[in-house]
Amino acid sequence: QAQLVESGGGLVQPGGSLTLSCVASGFTLDDYALGWFHQAPGKERTGVSCISRDDKTTYYTDSVKGRFTISRNSAKTTAFLQMNNLKPEDTGVYYCYAEPFFSPDRLCRDRSLEEWGPGTLVTVST
């Protein structure tokens, strides 16, 4: 069964860094645009960073520009989100998503995505 599993979350102080991973099983990521989505406590899930199928185009929401970097490994099995200078408002559950036809901009802005993985919890706090 094809699925994505996120990991790498944890508790970090403001200003700290984390790297999230998203491992694909049952398929490879080379034919998919990828996205990382954030759901803060009590709020809806929103896209924070997305990358095109060929890795040439990226999208970042304004609040994470210059702090987060999306990538995938050369084997096309794992996606990453490098998060630097973390802020308390970055707290929440992070999910990844793979979509074969959308641009990064469209993927990150879509509100109709279904079948999410378990996510990984990031807590930024002193």
Span of the ends, CA to CA = 40 Å
Strand order of the largest sheet: 2-10-9-4-5-6
**Sheet having the most strands:** 6 strands, mixed
Q: Radius of gyration, Cα only, in angstroms? A: 13 Å
Principal-axes shape call:
globular
Q: Helical segment tally?
A: 1
Number of strand segments = 10
The helix/strand order is EEEEEEEEEHE
Secondary structure class reads mainly beta
Q: Provide the residue-averaged pLDDT.
A: 95
Contiguous runs where pLDDT drops below 50 for at least 5 residues: none
Strand content: over 45%
Helix content: under 10%
Architecture overview:
The structure is a single chain. By secondary structure, this protein is mainly beta. It has one helix spanning 104-109, and strands at residues 3-7, 10-12, 18-25, 33-39, 45-51, 58-60, 68-72, 78-83, 92-99, 120-124. The chain has a six-stranded mixed sheet. A four-stranded antiparallel sheet has the order 1-3-8-7, with no helix packed on it. The chain is globular. The N and C termini lie far apart (40 Å). The mean pLDDT is 95.
